[in-house]
Write a structure and sequence with these properties.
Elements lengths: L1 E6 L9 H17 L6 H7 L3 H6 L8 E4 L6 E4 L12 H4 L7 H22 L1 H27 L14 H14 L4 E6 L2 E6 H20 L9 H18 L24
Antiparallel strand pairs: 1-4, 2-3, 4-5
Helix pairs in contact: 1-5, 5-6, 5-7, 6-7, 6-9, 7-8, 7-9, 8-9
């Protein structure tokens, strides 16, 4: 597995206002609306439910009790609650919600590392639109693959999904295409090292693909929506150059590959 620690920001020209605002909004929603992940009512009203998106109908289900097959412990699972307004609003709202402190911490760290450079390349407004479009594409990828594999009215299609990782995957796809040779400091299989972005992001994406393959066979993926990660990443790859039209974003292959002595790293 690969975990980024820092990247080369020596060529960044502008302060990443939008990226920091996005991080702030995610934290604000998690702390004040989700109450650090403890407000199930809010979470189950605004999470994306595949069946709702495909049918356009708001689902309301009673809470259930699930027994852990190993420990025998009984766990109460909240039911789906009415969504104020259109169910399609959840495609946007769920992008700013998280399931736990570790979930939001990991997502915001990846956004902090990779988002500022993409914003610098695209400009603030284009970056914001790119982020949102990538997130929507990621959510739709998860929705339609879930329905295709399990069926519209299956139990799996009623499981709510949430998180910024789909949008952040799009940012990483854009980062890979714009800055393939930018140096990234990572923990790679327990080793702290510097690698070019195409290695760091490429390994991460390969892990998403391998981890998501069991879903195609109808197997559980441990509660992680890998289809959203893959869909967001592909959307980022496909769209970043479109959003960059008219911007000076070209990076020569020697910019950070042959001259590591000139880099400054953010920690």
């Amino acid at each position: 597995m690969v975990f980024p620690i820092a990247d080369d920001n020596s060529d960044r020209r502008n302060f990443p206002v939008v990226n920091i605002v996005l991080i702030g909004i995610n934290i604000f929603v998690f702390v004040f609306f989700q109450k650090l992940g403890n407000d199930d009512d809010f979470t189950y009203r605004f999470s994306t439910v595949p069946e709702e998106i495909v049918t356009g109908k708001d689902l309301v289900t009673p809470p259930t009790t699930v027994t852990n097959e190993i420990t025998g412990e009984k766990v109460r699972v909240p039911g789906l609650l009415p969504t104020p307004g259109s169910v399609y609003f959840t495609l946007l709202m769920s992008m700013f919600m998280h399931g736990s402190i570790m979930h939001i911490a990991g997502n915001m760290w990846f956004l902090w590392i990779f988002g500022d450079n993409v914003e610098d390349a695209l400009g603030p407004l284009r970056y914001l639109l790119f982020y949102l479009v990538s997130g929507l594409a990621a959510s739709l990828a998860h929705v339609f693959l879930t329905v295709a594999v399990y069926g519209v009215h299956s139990q799996e299609a009623d499981v709510p999904s949430l998180g910024a990782s789909g949008a952040i995957s799009g940012v990483m796809g854009g980062y890979l295409l714009l800055f393939p040779f930018k140096r990234v400091t990572v923990i790679l299989f327990r080793l702290l090292t510097d690698v070019p972005a195409w290695v760091a992001v490429g390994i991460w994406f390969g892990f998403q693909v391998l981890s998501g393959l069991p879903m195609l066979g109808g197997q559980d993926t441990g509660g992680v929506a890998y289809a959203a990660h893959i869909g967001g990443f592909v959307a980022g790859l496909a769209l970043v150059k479109v959003f960059a039209i008219g911007r000076d974003v070209e990076q020569g292959p020697t910019a950070a590959w042959y001259q590591p002595q000139r880099t400054r790293r953010r920690w």
